[in-house]
Amino acid sequence: MSAALIPLFPLSIVLFPGQAVPLHIFEPRYRVMARHCIETQSPFGIVFNHDGNIAQTGCSALVVKTLKEYEDGRSDILAAGQSAFRLIRTHEEKAYLEAEVVYLEEDFAGIDATVSAQLEQLFNQCHRILYEEDAPRFETEGSISLAYHVASELPVDVPFRQTLLEVRSEAERQRLLAARLAEWYPQLERRDRVRGKAAGNGHGKL
């Protein structure tokens, strides 16, 4: 598979294909990058940057809307995740970082319907505790990842999000995420009960 050269935007987040994310662009070099991507309608890559260490798997994104432009040159944009990629090498010739990347294929073989159903149930249960409403429905048309959808809507910790992005098998992603939510849901339930008791009589505590 041939490599593509794209601008690279290291951040403390992990973006998934199909996920929308608002970004505040303030550094001069990334203002240049964003302007280039908007004018050419070309993608850039978001990679997880942890203490200066850049992850080797990231997600390409397209700017779908400029939300706000400030007088000092800053801007708020809305970007949408496109495809997972693997870094080959980086280039520093321009004001912003660029990278040669290879886009990665998603493997949708061998999905267990039982695990998918369990994941959707856990997703809804966690979402109702956190946000007091049912989880957004998952659209099943096309090759869309249920695991990406669920992890995009819940405050899953960033290192685990990176793990999900690096897994190519959707069946394995669903299994990993269902196991994580199965551990997390009882903790959310307990925290919710304690919060209710604390609000009622002041004696509840974690």
Written description of the protein model:
A hairpin with a 2-residue loop joins strand 3 and strand 4. Strands 1-3-5-6-7 form a five-stranded mixed beta barrel. It has about 210 residues and is of the alpha+beta class. It contains five helices and seven strands, in the order E-E-H-E-E-E-E-E-H-H-H-H. Helix 2 packs parallel to helix 3, helix 2 packs parallel to helix 5 and helix 3 packs parallel to helix 5.
SS field, number of helical segments: 5
Q: How is the largest sheet built, in terms of strand order?
A: 1-3-5-6-7
Q: What average pLDDT do the residues reach? A: 92
- Please tally the β strands and state the result: 7
Helical fraction equals: 25-40%
| Overall radius of gyration | 19 Å
N- to C-terminal separation?
Answer: 52 Å
Helix-strand category? alpha+beta
Largest sheet: 5 strands, mixed, barrel
Shape: globular
Range of strand content? 25-35%
In short:
The protein is α+β, with helices and mostly antiparallel strands. It has 5 helices and 7 strands. It starts with a strand and ends in a 5-residue tail after the last helix.
Summarize the topology.
Layout: E1 4-11, E2 20-25, H1 28-40, E3 44-50, E4 53-54, E5 57-69, E6 75-91, E7 98-103, H2 113-131, H3 146-153, H4 158-166, H5 170-201
Parallel strand pairs: 1-3
Antiparallel strand pairs: 1-7, 2-6, 3-4, 3-5, 5-6, 6-7
